[in-house]
Amino acid sequence: MGGTDIERLIALLARLPGLGPRSARRAALALLRQPQARMLPLAQAMEQAARSVRTCSSCGNLDTRDPCTICTDPGRDAGMVCVVETVGDLWALERAGVHRGVYQVLGGTLSALSGMGPDDLNVAPLLARIAQGGVHEVILALGATVDGATTAHWLQDRLAGSAVAVSRVGQGVPMGGALDVLDDGTLAAALMARRPA
Amino acid sequence: MGGTDIERLIALLARLPGLGPRSARRAALALLRQPQARMLPLAQAMEQAARSVRTCSSCGNLDTRDPCTICTDPGRDAGMVCVVETVGDLWALERAGVHRGVYQVLGGTLSALSGMGPDDLNVAPLLARIAQGGVHEVILALGATVDGATTAHWLQDRLAGSAVAVSRVGQGVPMGGALDVLDDGTLAAALMARRPA
Ligand SMILES: [Zn+2]
Ligand SMILES: [Zn+2]
Q1: Where is each Toprim domain found (chains A, B) (predicted)?
Q2: Could you tell me if residue A23 is inside a domain?
Q3: Which residues between 19 and 58 in chain A have a beta carbon less than 8 angstroms from any beta carbon of chain B?
Q4: Less CB within 10 Å around the terminal CB: N or C of chain B?
């Protein structure tokens, strides 16, 4: 396949989600045909992003700043927190442009199968913000799976003693890393149709 | 979407063949989650490949050496030349492991629509090798399209005066950048079933 450097490039590309061996070869070919115009700019964008990416210590978003652009946006309602499983879910909601508050990215759900317990969820910053009285609404946008429902119930229990209103987005919507497949209108409708949990 | 560095990375990934905006975001997220373990190694593999890639001056293959590994392999029959449209076709035939000779990558076909004429095809090295008497068989593995057929006929005309046997791979096989979608057995059968042109 033309040298170990090229084989290594194909192997690394093939590990990306959504790229199998075949599409990895096709992508590698496209890059190899234009090393200066296409491959080097992509390589440099990756190095730049790898150097600059931070996990927001407040919400768990990935950004080049910590706290992230969303958490520091004065135009957002910091008292309305949408709880999602993944950064991909957060990005999907941001593309839809329907949530005017901030987020909490759990980084997963409670899961007996994969051994994820409460300590493995990124939930402490949310609880701290609530304890400080800075939160008036928590919107749970978790997956409509057993693990998503378990996590939602656990969070409701944790928040039961506080004065925070807890709501859940409309059911039947695939959440939990799968928000990405929804069009913006459906996402907007799901968020509008949230109901008290 | 978390900083211009991240947006730029997603935009560049989305330009790769086979990656739409959605899969580009998913790939970017996977890389951003592991900047040291995944993103930097891929960036470095790209820079390394961009620095080392060469177009073989003999056959048109992409490799880290010129002439390429195939052209310089003493175990191959340099007198049996398989003519393909793209490097992707060459790679597909190599994966199938059925061609024991060398290649000529035209880089396209004659095409009135896209204005590709004889001078735009990488065919001079093949003609030179034939003029030197070093070739006994030319196998045309071109696309079963109008342009592929036109190119095959034009090449046959060019070789008509020589003592070279010209054959074509079995018809009905999608060639021309599309060999990639065939399993190895089908590719092998197509090459075995070549007939005199
Ligand atoms: Zn944040
Ligand atoms: Zn070569």
Answers
A1: 79-174
A2: yes
A3: 19, 22-23, 25-33, 35-36, 38-53
A4: C
